[in-house]
């Protein structure tokens, strides 16, 4: 009779032992030791300073890192802050050295992606750094894929070469990373009153890192710090820094390399952009086009739409359409990353986009659209070179004949439109 009772007691003790042991570990586990250990391992993995405010051990085994900061040297702020990081680890993992999480939840993320004028970027340094995860100090084991969930994130993008300064808020998303390869399954947030969605991949496992991604923006308010738009729409060069209006963008892009030059040479993709409305006062290109197309002298509020391709260091478009005062200017050509442009006015595109009444009016102006089709814009957006039928219109020298032809064409177009 005693034997069954003894066995029951033994089974009960064996069942309770892990629970009691876990409670003991929670009571005596040295969290300061764990914090210092994690700081060292994360610093070795990233090659950058790491600070942790505290480490908390959950009853169910989750490890929480509070106040995580990466980067910064006391004079410069860290480029990554996380209020709370939850990892599917427990104290046993830490004590045994098996500290490779597979699930990570991040709350209150603040990330700053800053590329200076020389092309240096802390995030790129991390991606191209030691590349050994915290669980692989010797570099011999296979990397462990980590699933990352971000809630309530904020990202600042500062790109000095293009004059871009953006702040994305309320970011939620999911991604995976194994130390060399990463995939952003979805990342959604808000930017200047509009919505933003991104998905993509990056691979740093080969000789040359590469990336690909898709960016979609809807109803994003135009504002200061959107200098990169000049590369896609050179008409914006010279316009006020604080643009009024909204932006819709759909962009697929891929590239490879670590330097700015390598990235610009390899970038390839396609997209569509619409800015409506947008203030075009200050645009030198629009000012020059106003010599042949009847536009108001000031208060040039219009819209810009374009389908474009990226490749060979250029952004090319066959239908870059600038509409001001009901008259669409359709440009076909390219702008390269060095700032050079080469566009021609697309007469057929203008005819298709004109309202029916204006199309009928221009039919009474013989050769008007044909003359427009000889208009060419080269040089740079801030210093365009204008030619009409091969004859220069601006720049040094006597251009009175070409300018007279422009004035005559402009008067004929204006008369018909006003009627």
Q: Could you characterize what this model shows?
A:
- The protein has 419 residues and is α+β, with helices and mostly antiparallel strands.
- 26% of the residues lie in helices and 41% in strands.
- It contains eleven helices and 19 strands.
- It has a 19-stranded mixed sheet that branches.
- β8 and β9 (194-203) form a beta hairpin.
- The radius of gyration is 30 Å and the shape is elongated.
- It starts with a helix and ends with a helix.
- Residues 11-16 and 130-140 have low confidence and may be disordered.
What are the secondary-structure elements, in order, as H or E? HHEEEEHEHEEEEEHEHEHEEEEHHHEEEH
What is the residue-averaged pLDDT?
77
Overall form:
elongated
**What count of helical segments does DSSP give?**
11
Radius of gyration: 30 Å
Instruction: Report the count of strand segments.
Output: 19
For the sheet with most strands, the description reads: 19 strands, mixed
Strand content: 35-45%
- Helix and strand content put the structural class at alpha+beta
Percent in helix: 25-40%
- N-to-C span: 114 Å
pLDDT < 50 stretches: 11-16, 130-140
Short overview:
This protein is an alpha+beta fold and 419 residues long. It has helices at residues 2-28, 31-46, 91-96, 122-127, 229-232, 260-266, 284-289, 347-353, 356-362, 368-372, 400-418; strands at 50-51, 54-57, 63-70, 80-87, 103-115, 146-159, 164-177, 181-191, 194-203, 210-221, 246-256, 268-279, 301-311, 314-324, 327-336, 341-345, 375-380, 383-388, 391-392.
């Amino acid at each position: 009779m005693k034997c069954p009772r003894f066995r029951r007691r033994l089974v009960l003790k064996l069942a309770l032992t892990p629970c009691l042991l876990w409670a003991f570990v929670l009571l005596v586990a040295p969290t300061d030791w764990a914090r210092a250990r994690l700081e060292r391992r994360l610093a070795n993995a990233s090659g950058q300073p790491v600070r942790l405010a505290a480490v908390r051990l959950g009853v169910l085994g989750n490890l929480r890192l509070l106040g995580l900061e990466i980067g910064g040297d006391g004079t410069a702020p860290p480029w990554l802050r996380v209020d709370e990081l939850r990892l599917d680890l427990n104290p046993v993992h830490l004590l045994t050295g098996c500290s490779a999480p597979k699930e990570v939840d991040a709350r209150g993320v603040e990330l700053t992606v800053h590329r200076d004028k020389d092309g240096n970027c802390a995030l790129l340094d991390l991606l191209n750094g030691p590349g050994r995860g915290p669980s692989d100090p010797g570099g011999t084991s296979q990397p462990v894929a980590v699933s990352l969930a971000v809630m309530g994130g904020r990202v600042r993008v500062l790109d000095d070469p293009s004059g871009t300064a953006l702040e994305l808020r309320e970011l939620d998303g999911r991604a995976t990373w194994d130390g060399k390869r990463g995939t952003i399954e979805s990342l959604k947030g808000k930017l200047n009153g509009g919505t933003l969605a991104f998905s993509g991949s990056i691979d740093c496992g080969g000789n040359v890192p590469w990336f690909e991604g898709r960016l979609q923006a809807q109803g994003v308010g135009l504002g200061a710090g959107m200098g990169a738009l000049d590369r896609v729409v050179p008409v914006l060069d010279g316009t006020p820094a604080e643009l009024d209006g909204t932006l819709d963008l759909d962009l697929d892009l891929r590239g490879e390399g670590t330097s700015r030059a390598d990235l610009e040479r390899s970038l390839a993709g396609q997209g569509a952009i619409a800015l409506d409305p947008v203030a075009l006062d200050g645009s030198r290109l629009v000012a020059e086009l106003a010599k042949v197309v009847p536009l108001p002298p000031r208060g040039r509020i219009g819209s810009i739409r374009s389908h474009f391709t990226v490749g060979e260091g250029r952004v090319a478009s066959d239908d870059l359409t600038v509409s001001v005062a009901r008259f669409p200017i359709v440009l076909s050509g390219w702008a390269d990353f060095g700032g050079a442009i080469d566009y021609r006015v697309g007469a057929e595109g203008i005819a298709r986009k004109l309202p029916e009444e204006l199309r009928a009016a221009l039919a009474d102006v013989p050769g008007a659209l044909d003359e427009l089709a000889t208009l060419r814009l080269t040089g740079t957006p801030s210093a365009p070179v204008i030619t009409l039928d091969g004859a220069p219109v601006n720049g040094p020298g006597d251009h009175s004949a070409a300018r007279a032809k422009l004035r005559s064409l402009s008067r004929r177009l204006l008369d018909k439109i006003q009627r």
